[in-house]
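Weekly structure sync - notes
Attendees: PM, LS, DV (DV joined late)
Agenda: review two folding runs queued last week.

Item 1: First target. Sequence and structure tokens pasted below for the record.
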Amino acid sequence: MMADFSTDVLVIGTGPAGSATSALLASYGVKVMVVNRYRWLSNTPRAHITNQRTMEVLRDLGPEVEAEAMMHATPQALMGENVFCESLTGEELGRMKSWGTSPLSKAEHLMSSPCEMNDLPQTFMEPILFKTACARGAEARMSVEYVSHEQDAEGVTTTCRDRLSGQTFTVRSKYLVGADGGNSLVAEHLGLPFEGKMGVGGSMNILFKADLSRHVAHRPSVLYWVMQPGADVGGIGMGLVRMVRPWNEWLIVWGYDITQPAPVVDEAMATQVARQLIGDPELEIDLISANTWTVNNCFATHMQKGRVFIMGDAAHRHPPSNGLGSNTSIQDGYNLAWKLAAVVKGQAGPALLESYRAERAPIARQIVTRANQSIAEFGPIFEALGMDGGVDHDKIARSMAARCDATPAGEAQREALRKAIAFKAYEFDCHGVEMNQRYASGAVVTDGQTPPAPLADMELHYQPTTFPGARLPHVWVFDRKGGKHSTLDLTGKGQFTLITGIGGEAWAEAAEALSLPIRVVKIGPRCAIEDHSGDWARAREITDAGCLLVRPDQHVAWRSPGLTADPKADLSRVLHAILGL
């Protein structure tokens, strides 16, 4: 039976993962179709923290894409300090500089990337990625839902339903990508193995408008944690007031008992909760929407079966702690898109696609574990404040007030609270988790080289290295006209890049002799790119005559410390191994 439509890659879902993958595939010249079961994109600003690595993906899509994201984003400087308080109008209990805004962390951010992290709600991120996909040739269908699929040796036949007419149609594709969220039907139909548990807690989102600038502008923050006796958010034990737009659009997160039916949040209830957390009994809000959701602790141990892949929330389902959700989803797409493009164009064999699971499944495990661990790490704060989960609100209030006592016990309590808040850096300034992703798979060749020993806490701090599998380190280099470029800008755009220096001409000749198009970048005095500051020489971990082979996703595929006896044979060997040829 002939399918109604055909494409190279069919993507189910237009969230951060699906839209990013579609935009990247279209940019690489691959025929892609993307479907969305709704009439438009996200209608709630669920994901918002956008880290440097994700901004690098947008930068690789084009400077105009990065610029539009920054135009809509709340800048890093206003992401500021996580505030812990009894209410927005009540007593402040403590705060911590977060998201790279402390002086030392800010310096690390500046040295790590040409991009700045920011707060970009999903309602802004999705349209940027989706628009980019459509503008570059992706075929998009809205109000169309995935029904089922069948795959064979040559491709995948997917049945979809037009939700407006009720009619079904089929799409024939070489590959299918399920980016259809935490209740992924694609993942269910594949029967992929998952570890963990769904529905471990219940929460509700209350999205509203109200001018709260008088309470917060002097202490700008993305998150205001309200610690009140009796407050509870999905097992976290406090209320959360999140800035969506400074300082007049907000999202309150409030918990409910997961063992009971989800509550119906009407305007009266939403107003009551907002008044309680903000501490203003006369507050009037403009309620935009309210919805319930579940806290999950679940990830796929396999993300592929044959010609079908899953990514994003379909593969890793976790609470929003650490702000890793949309970032990991977009980076899933960055990992898979270039591999699909290479196989579709005949530049690589199907074995290359197996590296997607090998590289991204460990990341899924890591971020789900980290996000759920971050919830548990609120425990010392509760303990320091005497919020032990009991129902005696007067006792809790007395315990919280005891930190003001001029007694040894009061001083110890104050110190315990300071330490407990500082420890939340593992959630709110976890730069290493965001930037230290290193891949080990068939798409990386180490040639027996030894990885560098960790220099610091690898969750908190980024460690730049050119060891194969790591992201290429960022430093600023210059063209002959004085133009300033990140080393990352010299790579990407769906193409392999070979970086060498003076004495590495044989590497350039070897790359040019191959049938696969490889960009060659030579860095050194009187070269097209110059290292005036010496930062590249310090970061590259190879000699002038050595080389780095960088993948289209800016991760190092292979490196040679120096010139070898037969550069052409070595480069050919490595590429054949990586591409599965």
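Item 2: Second target, run right after the first with the same settings.
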Amino acid sequence: MTTYNETAVLEDHPIPASAHALPSQAGPREWLGLALLSLPTILLGLDLTLLHLALPALAADLRPTSTEALWIMDAYGFMIAGFLITMGTLGDRVGRRRLLMIGAAAFGVTSIIAAFSTNALMLMVARAALGVAGATLMPSTLALISNLFADPRQRALAIGVWATTFALGMAAGPIVGGVLLEHFWWGAGFLVAVPIVLLLLLLAPVLLPEHRARKSDRIDLLSAALSLAAMLPVIYGIKEIAKDGFGLSTIATIVAGVLFGLLFVWRQRRLADPLLDLDLFASRAFSVALVVLLFGLVAVGGTMLLVTQYLQLVAGFSPLVAGLWMGPPALAMVAAGIGTPLLARHVRPGFVVAGALALSVFGYLMLTWLKNDASGLVIVVAGFSLAYLGLGTIAALGTDLVVGSAPAEKAGSASAMSETVQELGASLGIALLGSITTAVYRQTMQSRLPDGLSPEVEASVGDSLWAASAMAQRLPVGLLEDAQSSFITGFNTAAALSAATVAVLAVLAGVALRKIPTLHAAPQE
């Protein structure tokens, strides 16, 4: 059995076009390599949403506070987003395949630790470590796809598959989580990574080429630290405002994050080899496409969390049934992921994105009509299916819009930015919309709490719906229904914010991206 032991070297100067008439065509081995690279890509998306359905069971076991629960949910995505560009540079130095295998091994070990966590803090740390390991996987997979497929048409198809598999992983997370929770404990979902990691480590030397630069760029650790110092305080501040309102310490935390962000930008402009090439933002198409990806995923990521909580804590479904009800939205996303690139051959991509996002707006508006009655399930499934239609569209076309609007020599930086904003958007949505829903819930429940409750019960019911559900047997008659109604009020508020945000994105895409040409099929040779 032969293996890819050769090291592909990036030359300082491009190879003249006359060096070869046509790029080599990928064969079965390369397509098998793509299938192998799709496994960690699906896993990354899966881990981003796998805990949505497990949160009630996790809460009953580990008893996290509402803030700890949100950190458990989104620490993974935040750390991926913070380290993506750094790990992309590291891959150039040590080799993309090598970094992929090191990161996969770390991901597998950390997943086992997360699965058997005994308290909320341990799980929070494990999720953060999973994010760092996951950050090694995403840029490595996309870069290796570029090495496997030299033909531009085949490479475009392969990148489309790559983008779709990540979105499919996100969609499958609640379903897989529901199936596992039906038979195992909440930590079983993390163990899904173990066989995938073992298969990747076994087959990567056979199916994947090594790739590293002859002249490695110096990794600027200060830039990596500044990017984290900018992002994490701002997100923490958002959580604290939702929990306790505005305070001097909270505002100071957010201001500190903004200042670190300015320092990060200043440093990137002074470095010869920056972690983030800011010149890319001079392209309006590049910047607008990133904005659509970022805020589109903010709306979807946060709404997904609320939908899964509704299905379990209000509709009363088991994790398995709740996961199955997430199937129709997943099918809508797959249909959009397959159909919109075909439509974009005849209709300009900006208009395709704008139209899909307009349908998503109607879906979010449907969720603002949600009430605690028999019609709730239909509204949730139909509304979220339209929201997922928008997700499928931006997942399929977003990466192509970002990479295609950047100069060819900067395609690597553009790809890293696309990955970063998608991870950050989904995680930020969980934090922001989850915090808004929690804040509205607490404010609404204050007037509904009866006298005579024990301090423990009053604290739990006043904190969140999942905390109230954990002690449902100890609640007075009707109080759990009041808690469910308060949660739905918060859900309505978050959905209204999502609808307004996505409406702005639809207009922005239709106007700013209107000049991007259609995606014509490649001419026959």
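Discussion on item 2: Residues 411-446 form the longest helix (36 residues).
Action: LS to circulate a short write-up before next sync.
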